[in-house]
Amino acid sequence: MTPENGYLNKLGIIAKFFQFNQLQTNFYTEIIAGITTFVTMAYILVVNPEILSKAIFLQNSGDLFGELVIATAISAAFATLVMGIYANYPYALAPGMGLNAYFTFSVVLKLGISWQVALAAVFIEGLIFIGLTISQVRSQIVNNIPECLKQATTAGIGLFIAYIGLTSSKIIVTNEATTTTLGNLNQPETLVAISGIIITSAFVVRRMTGALLWGILATALLTWILGIAPFPNGIISFPQLPTHLFGQAFAGFENIVKTNNIWELITIIFVFIFVDFFDTVGTLTGLGIKARYFHQTRESLNLNKAFMADALGTTFGAVMGTSTVTSYIESAAGVSEGGRSGFTAVVVGFLFILSIFFIPLLSAIPSLATTPTLLVVGVLMMGSVRNISWDDPAESISAFLTIIIMPLSYSIADGLAMGLISYPLLKTFQGKFHETTFLMWILTLIFVLKFLFLGK
After folding, report:
1. Closest listed residue to residue 51, CA positions, set 273, 239, 324
2. What is d(CA 139, CA 29) in angstroms, rounded to the nearest whole number?
3. What stretch of H or E contains 327?
4. Where are the beta strands (DSSP E) in 151-192?
5. 3-class state of residue 126 by DSSP
6. CA–CA gap between residue 31 and residue 84 (Å, rounded)
7. What is the pTM of this model?
8. Exposed e or buried b for every residue in 382-403, given b needs 16+ CB within 10 A?
9. In 206-294, which ranges are continuous DSSP H helix?
10. What is the largest distance, in Å, between two alpha-carbon atoms of the chain?
11. Using alpha carbons only, what angle is made at residue 428 by residues 423 and 433, rounded to the nearest 5 degrees?
12. Whole-angstrom Cα distance, residue 444 to residue 425?
């Protein structure tokens, strides 16, 4: 066998393993999709350490920012590779935004719980998720979500990520009188973001391969040239291994036994579980609709594997020293580029590993460079609203609540909650109680109790 034939044979094995033919994809598409997803969510390598370092530090030697960067990258790589290889989905995972803020500001800084105990709580959360996944509770919940709410979740996520892009670039800003309003469009940042939207949209309408990735890079280049963001101050740096972080979750268990706030700790674990559970359900459902998985037999077989990747990622992340690892809505960027198989996630996972050596370069890409991609992805995901039965008021009202609450509450879980609360009630008022399920009523009760006793 010649080297060329051996190489082609290996590619054939990979293509067969990731089911390229069945999913109508190829190596080039999957690689572009993986790169696009990674670049879109690479901000987490800097943002997550920035947030967690406010809570996670050493009393004597201080800042652990460098170690948190490595912990973030390794945790994201591990969970994403499990998602790609084990579940064969093109979704990327990393420490979740929102959950990291809750970890830092609510748990450690406000309640005064040590960061080691907080990591132990995240570890317990991961173990509980593993148990719920093995028992197939999570996949059963997804199977019981009505089709209209699945479609609405896709659209809601689209609006949500578009809103994130518009606010991060200051095209939309806060306003005391109207809550939000249009930003000052003659500012350099917003002008570059608008230019990036035009450039990226031009790439998309011309159906250029890798349009979203090229849009991110073009916008980043504009910010560097115009001095809005500094040029990378380097390309390669050697990682600082997380020696002070690794295994601190286990040390936290010793403190749990000594604490007098055991019920407070249980509440913390519950909030971690609740938010991550329904964020993940919403994200996987929405992206699954976008990637057309819910019309394929692989969905019922692999969805539980996707939940297991999420659960293992959270458990592993806690051991490494970071907050809850969860599925990322930015995966929609890769899905929109045509990513359909787990090979997209494998590409993202390897890029997270490589990123350990390229933090100076990646950290130089400003968040506004991703605005055009997030906006275009939002447009593409909104297409799912055509599959909602708008003539049925029970379905249209619950679907609309799901869509609109996600961006306005800044939470996928809260948007899905509103849909799941309203749908069975409206169906019952409509005289169609038989179209609801017992599990849906349980979810409705759980969400109502959660909002009553825990607030948001």
Report:
1. 324
2. 29
3. strand 325-327
4. 172-175, 179-182
5. helix
6. 13
7. 0.75
8. bebbeebeeebebbbbbbbbbb
9. 211-225, 248-258, 262-290
10. 73
11. 100
12. 9
Q: Which residues contact 10 (CB under 8 A, 6 or more apart)?
A: none
pLDDT value, residue 348: 97
46 contacts 369 by C-beta, under 8 angstroms? no
For residues 329-343, give the mean pLDDT.
89
pLDDT digits (tens, 9 = 90+) for 72-121: 999 999 999 999 999 999 999 999 876 787 788 878 887 788 899 899 99
Q: How high does pLDDT run on average in the chain? A: 84
Phi, psi for residue 175 in degrees, rounded to 5: -145, 130
**Around Cβ 379, how many Cβ atoms within 10 Å?**
13
Task: Report how far apart, in Å, the C-alpha atoms of 174 and of each of 110, 180, 414 are.
Answer: 25, 4, 21
Burial of 9 (0-12, 13-18, 19+ CB in 10 A): exposed
Tell me the C-alpha distance between 62 and 274, whole Å.
Answer: 32
Length of the chain: 456
> DSSP readout, 232-255?
PS-S-------TTTTTHHHHHHHH
pLDDT of residue 257: 63
* Lowest-confidence segment of 175-179, 206-210, 388-392, 447-451 by average pLDDT: 206-210
Dihedrals φ, ψ of 422, to 5°?
A: -75, -35
From the number of C-beta atoms within 10 Å of its C-beta (0-12, 13-18, 19+), residue 267 rates as middle
Residue with tokens 């391969």: 209
- Is it the case that residue 39 has pLDDT exceeding 50? yes
pLDDT (average), residues 364-374: 82
Distance CA 54, CA 38 (A): 25
Query: What would the pLDDT profile of 375-391 be if each residue is shown by its tens digit?
Result: 887 887 788 888 899 99
CA distance linking residue 300 with residue 142, whole number of Å: 10
Return the pLDDT at 17.
93
Mean pLDDT of 297-325: 84
Start-to-end CA span in the chain (Å): 63
At position 256, the amino acid (one-letter code) is I
Distances (CA, A) of 183 to 145, 167, 175: 38, 9, 9
- How far, in whole angstroms, is CA 197 from its chain's centroid? 22
Q: How far apart are CA 91 and CA 98, in angstroms?
A: 19
Tokens representing 360 are 């100076």
DSSP label at 321?
A: T
Predicted local distance difference test score (pLDDT) of residue 37: 92
The conformation of residue 19, written as its DSSP 8-state character, comes to: T
Q: For 154-173, what is the mean pLDDT?
A: 86
Given the structure tokens 């909002």, which residue do they identify? 451
